Amino acid sequence: MEVKASTLSGNSKVAVVTGGNKGIGLEICRQLASNGVTRGTRERGVEAVNALKTQGLSNVVFHQLEVGDRSSAARLAGFIRQKFGKLDILVNNAGIVGTVTEVSDPESFQRKFLSGEDLKQELNSIENLTKERLDDLSELFLKDFRNGQLEPHGWPAEGVSPAAYTVSKALANAYSRIIAKEHATLCR
């Protein structure tokens, strides 16, 4: 999903929202477009763009993007460079999870997907969490990953969702909460 905007100061802003064709991504696009930012999406995205345009948000532009395909990303970059000359905002909302598995035992799924009580407590403790600690946790995860020590050290198990995806998503969410806390007046 890609967006271009005119701000109050008259400066034009261009944003790309991956995964912007539904859910949170679509709402991010709606908010950006209603605040003067122009953006676009994909096949479902064509429908999403048309729906936003019917809401009076004409500054929405469609462009195909497969986040797991380097050539698709290169085409989007070329399109942005040619049409807008720059990119101001990137909202990386799309995810690549790997194989989809049927969950027949939700309790077992929860244990595999959310293991490591200490890790969960640390990431949820926004009062004590810092950017530096997230960097430390990231380095520790990478070390344990390389050494095959994920499960013994309380990291999520490989299985339903790849551990690297799960941990990177958890760290990104924790970082977002830290930023929101640091800039509380922007979030109200």
TrEMBL record:
Keywords: NADP, Oxidoreductase. It holds the Pfam family adh_short. One of its GO terms (molecular function) is oxidoreductase activity. One of its GO terms (cellular component) is membrane. Signal peptide: none annotated. It comes from the Eukaryota. The keyword NADP applies. Coiled coil: none annotated. Belongs to the short-chain dehydrogenases/reductases (SDR) family. This is Uncharacterized protein. It comes from Eragrostis curvula.
